[in-house]
Amino acid sequence: MDHALGSPSAGDSLGRPQEGRDELLILASNYLERLDDQVDSLVARLRERMPEYAAVPTAELRAYTAAIIRSALEQLPVTDGGLDAGGIRALQELARRRVEQGFPLEALTRSIQISARFVLDALDEEASKRGLSDRVVLAAHDLAWRFANDAAGVINAVRHDVAVEAARRDAEQRVDFLRALLHAQLSAARISVDARTFGLDPTAKYQPLCARPADQSDWAALTAVLQRTCATHELLPVVAVVDGDLVAVVPKCPVVGDRWLVATAEPAGLTDLAYAFDEAVSTLEIAQTFGLTGLVTIADLGPLPLAMLGADTAAHLEHRYLRALDDGQPGRQDVEDTVWDFLEYDRNLDQTALDLHVHRNTVRYRLARFQELTNLDLRCTRDVVLAWCLLAHRRVQRS
User: Fold this and answer.
1) Are strands 245-250 and 268-269 parallel, antiparallel or unpaired?
2) S-S: 274 plus which of 17, 144, 184, 245, CB 3.0-4.6 Å?
């Protein structure tokens, strides 16, 4: 009869006659009585067949092995084999202990299989001495199979948990590194060491990126785009969510189209990247305020940053020049919107009329009314600059 370790058929499972079950329980009980001696032999076999166990203390290897085998055999009367809660906890503890020791969990699974085979050989030998039926022998194989199968499941679950924990730790470390790097909290010596941990070349130049996708589902999509389009043959980007912003350090500009707003700055060495990142954040905030999309630099903003005047200064200037536009009289908003369009179209009268769907004479009238109400002459460069800044600032405030 082939007694190889494997899954038995339904007819040979532990749903057997009571006498066969009693005989198996006696076999298991006798084995438990001499478990200490058996464990010593098993530990010797594990050390012989698995070089990974060379560095594991004998006492520790012995204790864990005995605990798991004992759990499987002692619960046989009530669960028909396998691992109970105590055995599962012991194996989970063992698996995590092995991870801490740098021990591959695949090797632990193999050691469980060796242990199951070792116990099964002992039970087979005892059954043969007693002249027990094939049903009892098959039941013993069923027990060993359940034990190995349950153990493999526990180890796979621990392997998954360890992988998740490792990914979380890696993500947290990446966030901490980027935060410190982009806020000038690392020395040059520290940057030189830590940068390589995250795949950055301390001698290369990188661009900082900053984005704030509006839709939560866009965060992962934008991250994938940055990782794909910012990589070179030699260098890879580092991307993370830091303090509510999606930030990245990239060796080249991404290709993002108009779906997202991504701000960047000029390339810089890692030790000088904090200043460039501050510029990128400011660019993002201004571009976001004015509804821009795509890849934006501070140069793309033109004079828009001038609209971000200090609150007190802007309030005084608006009161001085624009208070008549807020007196509630009909048409005041039309005047303001027309002047804004006129300035945005580089004082092109025809383009302004076309955009507003009005006659060019209507545009002329509104421009004249603006000068009457504000005393700002749109033919004068200084007044044009001041008018644009104040109107842009009002849009910032309203947004």
Assistant:
1) unpaired
2) 184
